[in-house]
Design brief:
348 residues, alpha/beta, OB fold (Dihydrolipoamide Acetyltransferase, E2P), Beta-clip-like, 2 domains, five-stranded mixed β-sheet, elongated
Length: 348
């Protein structure tokens, strides 16, 4: 008779039991067991011929299936936690069909900038509009000397490098105002997935995204540029960093998304990206501290990976000192794996 080792929900491993097939009323788990076994055998068979033994599982296969099952539980718990913490409409999913990597151990999900000690973020505007229709009247962008950023389809119509001024908490317009887009957060369901090309985690959209649409914000810990330089030296040894200089008007502050961030923490680089960086001002009108928004540059189909250029600045220019996800501040040249026809060959 065929027996399966069962881990009981809510009970420790010490209470695991062996059960015959007729006792198991869990077709999904049995299918996952079969899939994991098949995947392991197909991986091994690439290197050498191996015969599947129906009487007993080889220890290596059993070990892989247990690890895969524990990984699946850990990723599900992480997915649940991310969705509890996020404050936007779009759902977050997590997927790893590539390896046994589990959730990151030192990452904390946040929805907005987290100021480092000594840095004050004044999130209260001093004035607001009194429009009845912000699309046609002299609204917040006009007061700041720029054009309204969006058309009637909620798509961005201004060129890269132009700042976005949205209506704020002092404005008399309601939540349906056409000039409130970034502040509503991500509207699309996204998936953090394990890439198969050696780029670690990535992010893909699960729904079609129209061109020139807001997709997500880049958030993290706001630190001084001096602290960013110090951290960059430390990150250099690890080969990773997530430093984005807030250099819209000055170069005093940097966003570090290494430990604190949102879905954008997992978005990979491409030399031919489908996301574009824009500086945004809403309640905090301090030009040293713009919010960073990512908009689609073209139609992005469901299942497609989201990418942005790590060297792209909010000004629309390309600079290696702008976003610095790989070894810090151009100290080490890191080979780019984006695979784009226009690939520059290096991330920095």
């Amino acid at each position: 008779m065929e027996y399966y080792l069962v881990k009981w929900k809510g009970w420790p491993d010490s209470t695991n039991t062996w059960e015959p097939l007729q006792n198991l009323k869990c077709p999904l788990l049995l299918q996952q067991f079969s899939n994991d076994k098949h995947n392991y055998l197909s991986q091994v068979k690439k290197g050498k011929a191996i015969k599947d033994n129906n009487k007993a599982l080889k220890p290596a296969i059993a070990e892989y299936i247990v690890k895969k099952a524990k990984q699946r539980l850990a990723l599900q718990r992480w997915q649940d936690e991310l969705n509890r913490r996020k404050n936007h409409k779009g759902m977050i999913f997590v997927e790893n069909t590539v390896d046994l990597e589990g959730p990151p151990s030192d990452f904390y999900y946040i929805n907005e900038y987290k100021p480092a000690p000594g840095i004050s973020l004044v999130n209260e505007a001093t004035f607001g509009c009194s429009c009845t229709d912000c699309f046609f009247e002299k609204c917040c962008p006009a007061e700041a000397g720029v054009l309204l950023a969006y058309n009637k389809n909620q798509q961005i119509k201004i060129p890269p490098g132009t700042p976005i001024y949205e209506c704020n908490s002092r404005c008399q317009c309601g939540p349906d105002c056409p000039n409130r887009i970034v502040q509503k957060g991500t509207q699309y369901s996204l998936c953090i997935f394990r890439t198969s090309n050696g780029c670690g985690w990535g992010v893909k959209t699960l729904v079609k995204i129209k061109r020139m649409s807001f997709v997500m914000e880049y958030v993290g810990e706001v630190i001084t540029s001096e602290e960013a330089e110090r951290r960059g030296q430390l990150y250099d040894n690890k080969g990773i960093t997530y430093l984005f200089d807030l250099d819209y008007e000055s170069d005093e502050f940097t966003v570090d998304a290494a430990r604190y961030g949102n879905v954008s923490h997992f978005v990979n680089h491409s030399c031919d990206p489908n996301l574009q960086v824009f500086n945004v001002f809403i309640d905090n009108l301090d030009t040293r501290l713009p919010r960073i928004a990512l908009f689609s540059t073209r139609t992005i189909n469901a299942g497609e990976e989201l990418t942005f250029d790590y060297q792209m600045k909010g000004s629309g220019d390309v600079s290696s000192d702008s976003v610095d996800h790989s070894p810090a501040k151009k100290r080490v040249r890191t080979v780019c794996k984006c695979g784009a026809v226009t690939c520059r060959g290096y991330l920095n």
